[in-house]
Amino acid sequence: MQPALFCRRKNSEQIAAFLQRHGDAKLVETGDTQSPGKQNLPHPEDGDGFFYAKLIKI
């Protein structure tokens, strides 16, 4: 499951980078202290994984 851990970290890094580039964006908290969004990991044999984070323009 190391690839899933890498993806989870990469998703968080993408959100952080976006927020640094866009001062008019703000992350809407999900209540999860480990990740800025939510992630649905794929089944090991078949399927896609998804990541989403809610951002607002301020």
TrEMBL record:
Residue ranges of every copy of the SAM-dependent MTase RsmB/NOP-type domain listed in the record: 1-58
Enzyme Commission code: 2.1.1.176
One BP annotation, GO: methylation
Q: Which gene encodes it?
A: rsmB_1
Xref: PROSITE patterns? SAM_MT_RSMB_NOP (PS51686)
**GO molecular function annotation:** methyltransferase activity; RNA binding
Q: For this UniProt record, give its keywords in alphabetical order, as a comma-separated list.
A: Methyltransferase, RNA-binding, S-adenosyl-L-methionine, Transferase
Protein name (database record): Ribosomal RNA small subunit methyltransferase B
* Source superkingdom: Bacteria
Under Pfam families, the record lists: Methyltr_RsmB-F
What family does this belong to? Belongs to the class I-like SAM-binding methyltransferase superfamily. RsmB/NOP family.
What InterPro entries does the entry give?
MeTrfase_RsmB-F_NOP2_cat, MeTrfase_RsmB-F_NOP2_dom, SAM-dependent_MTases_sf
Q: Has keyword S-adenosyl-L-methionine?
A: yes
